[in-house]
Structures are given as C-alpha cells and as structure tokens.
Amino acid sequence: MSMSATLQECLRSKGSQYEIVHHPHSHSSIETAAAAHIPGDRLAKTVLFEDEHGYVAAVLPSTYAVRLSELWAKTGRHLLLAKEVDLRELFKDCDAGALPPVCTAYGMRTYLDESLALQPDVYFEAGDHEALIHMGTDQFLDLMDRAERIRFARRMAGTPS
Predict the structure, then answer these.
(1) Is the CB of residue 135 less than 8 Å from the CB of residue 16?
(2) Which residues, other chains included, contact 144 with Cβ-Cβ below 8 Å and sequence gap of 6+?
(3) Helices (H), the chain
(4) Full-prediction pTM beyond 0.90?
(5) N or C: which end of the chain has fewer CB within 10 A?
C-alpha cells in the first residue's frame, strides 16, 4: 500500500522534513520497532477508542500501554477500544493495524501522550506494515499540533526502551 494519502497530504501541508524507513513486514508495534532496529520508546503507536459520542485516537510510545482510568479522567469520557471492523472503514487509505498518528486529519479528536515529546526523534506508521516515517520531535509536534497533549500511558513491564 505505501504511505497513506491522508498522511502524505498532512506532511506536505506542514512542510514536514522526514525520512521513510523501510522494514520487514511486522504485525505489532513492538515487532515493528525490533524489525526496524529502533528504540520502542521512539515509535509512536495509535490506538482507537470509541463511546456514544464517536471515535478518539490515543498516540503513545510502542513500549507503553494506555491507562484507561487516566484517559477517562482527563477526557471525561468512558472510552472503550474501537472495533477492528470500524477501523477499516475509518482509515480506508491504511492497512488494518497500521494507523498513522495524524487522526485529526481523519476527523478524530486525538490525544498525544506527553512522553513522546521527551524523545529526541519519533517514528510512526506510514499506513502499511513495512514503512515508517522518521522525523525530529519538533517536526512531529508541529505535525500533531491539533492533538491534545496529556499523560495517559505507562511503560509496560519488560519492554526494552
């Protein structure tokens, strides 16, 4: 599939400086970090949630897990994981499970975990399972300027940084 058209337009409109990093096909964010030989703390993953008001995206490091109680408290919403079938409909220009973090471009409220802002650089899915976008943190934060920055995640036990 290659880079999603929505992501490509976001990068172009922001004048983002980035590189594309190709890697062997992977099925999870932890597997992607290993396949691409990058630190898991620098790989942003996107997790989709829903409630009666619609969909919400949470963007966090691949080595972290969402603390639902924190997300609920900070958003005032009782969010649950979105169904896989819905993701295919919402992200038509992406492979299932390879969502870029620019979910505001897909019309979704997006929350960015503050821990990503502390990294020297960031990698994230380009829309398929074989390419990542790599950019400096300042570029990433500029790209994600419409996302709300909060703390809602914690490091998973036993994950390499």
Answers:
(1) yes
(2) 59, 101, 102, 110, 112
(3) 5-14, 29-36, 68-75, 84-90, 137-143
(4) yes
(5) C
Which residue is it, tokens 């009666």? 52
**CA 117/CA 61 separation, integer angstroms:** 10
Token pair in block for residue 96:
């299932």
Tokens of 148: 């709300």
All structural domains of the chain:
5-155 (3.90.960.10)
Give phi and psi for 90, each to the nearest 5.
-75, -35
For the chain, the residue count is 161
For the stretch 124-156, pLDDT in tens is 999 998 999 999 999 999 999 999 999 999 999
